[in-house]
Amino acid sequence: MLNWTLLIFCGGLMVTGIVGFGMFLARREARLMDSLRREMLNDLRQTEAQFIAEQKVRPIIKGPGDHWKSPVRKTTVQFALSFALLFAGSPGILASGSDWTQWRGPERNGHFNGPAWSEQLSTNHLRRAWTVELGPSYSGPIIAGSRVFTTETRDKTFEIVRALDVNSGREIWKTEWKGAMSVPFFAKSNGDWIRSTPACDGESLFVAGMRDVLVCLDAASGTERWRVDFVKKLSAPVPDFGFVCSPLVDGEAVYVQAGASFVKLNKRTGEITWRTLQDKGGMHGSVFSSPVIAKIGDLRQLVVQTRERLAGIDPADGKLLWEQPVEAFRGMNILTPVVEGDIVFTSTYGGKTIGFKITEVDGKFTATEAWRHKAQGYMSTPIVIGGVAYNYLKSQRLMAIEVATGRELWTSERSFGKYWSLVARADRILALDEGGTLHLLRENKEKFDMLDSRKVADSGAWAHLGVAGEQIFIRELNALSAFRWTR
Q1: DSSP state of 271
Q2: How far is CA 112 from CA 185, 222, 355, 469, in A?
Q3: What is the block-wise mean pLDDT of the chain (487 residues), using blocks of 10 residues?
Q4: What distance lies between CA 330 and its chain's CA centroid?
Q5: Element (H or E) spanning 38, and its range?
Q6: Per-residue DSSP letters for 276-324?
Q7: Distance, CA of 115 to CA of 277 (rounded, Å)
Q8: How many beta carbons lie within 10 A of that of residue 474, not counting itself?
């Protein structure tokens, strides 16, 4: 009896060891395949650049489909790309840690973790790689793997999404639908075109159409996977200023401020999981801001700014954790709230710059005003470096302010344009103004420290900067350009 027991025990150990070893091999092979896929794509990108150089294809192109000048080159590279994708077995596109996959980057904080930047913006340091002429848009470009995604409005009727090759600007796919609209009042002077910046998780691209429609596209092919018309689905009014909020992708969910509310959807099906923060919609309710997700206390939570209030929401069930009213002229709470430790920072048009302290006691959250500064923000969301927010103001000046205390460190003497989109890497800050001038600053708590400036766009540049790898992407009103740092 003992022998049989010992035999069964030893056999169990052997089976467990074999299964464990098999799982180890499977994981190792998966890592090797992923590494191989990345190496193959890097080789293909180098081949792409070599073809451009050898065949002298002009880098500035008039349209997305105007780049292919050689059928041999097109066939060869397309075959190689197809073979690589088939061999890799990837269902989507390959993204890297230095990609720019949603509004203000992968963490939605405006920080870039890729290669270092130069201290100058001259053509010897930052070279224009290509330009593609497009219809108007305010959506920022997003970058995942070898593709950059951008939107546009055509003939005041159609909304278009394009996937372009990051190295050449060649069009990979295009999708469009009827859905544009006209906006009222002061917003009219800046145009009626699409505003929200898409988001990509490597498999799907989430795009917000102006008429309160969220469309999920296959990132590899542009094929529509699902769409939600919030006006029809939730019997909500069409937002007078359009769908402005940029989708937030986190885990298996996508979050949007749409349908006169804040909504969580299953990113694979478009099914609505919960709905909260309902308002009147239309002219006075539909939002201008976009949500972020951050850990405050012991809970990872969504921080959401509406036209009238700032709130914390539990991602699991949509429960309201805390809220505070936020004063603004005609509800112009535009910037994305910024979380630094237990302080939530916001700055409004017609209101003030405020730091709200979020406190958790026995699992319950409260929000109190920690400090208030007289300066007014507008549309630019600040960058926080080392506890200091670099906040571009309604006065068209840059202010450095301590997030914890609200103490103003300095405000620039010089004024610039109405808007800056800001991206930081280490102690460097890139700022693109709406006039098309790119500025390079050094983070400095003592003074305004401008390193260099350069004109990079001829038409309005209200779309947010996009950065990935060695490249900077500028979406001006009627074109998208890629610039590359030179070493």
Answers
A1: -
A2: 36, 27, 24, 9
A3: 51 50 44 43 47 42 48 44 43 74 97 96 97 96 97 95 98 94 70 92 97 97 98 94 95 97 98 95 81 95 94 98 89 88 94 95 95 94 98 97 98 95 98 97 98 95 96 97 94
A4: 26
A5: helix 2-55
A6: ES----TTTSS-S---EEEEETTEEEEEEE-SSEEEEE-TTT--EEEEE
A7: 40
A8: 23
Reported pTM: 0.83
How many CB atoms neighbour CB 7 within 10 A?
10
Residue 478 CA to residue 36 CA, distance in Å, equals 38
Side-by-side strand order, sheet with 388-392? 383-385, 388-392, 398-402, 408-411
Reported as type and span, the H/E element at residue 438 is strand 437-442
Backbone angles phi, psi at 369, to 5 degrees: -75, 115
Find where tokens 């003497």 sit: 413
Give the strands of the sheet with 158-165, arranged side by side: 142-144, 147-154, 158-165, 171-178
Q: Which two tokens stand for residue 18?
A: 């074999």
Quick check: helix, strand or coil at residue 24?
helix
Q: How far apart are the first and last CA of the chain?
A: 75
Asked whether the beta carbons of 286 and 260 are under 8 A apart, the reply is yes
Contact 171, 163 (CB under 8 A): yes
Residue 43, token pair as written in the block: 């080789």
- Structure tokens, 23: 């799982």
Dihedral class, residue 212 (left if φ above 0, else alpha if ψ from -120 to 50, else beta): left
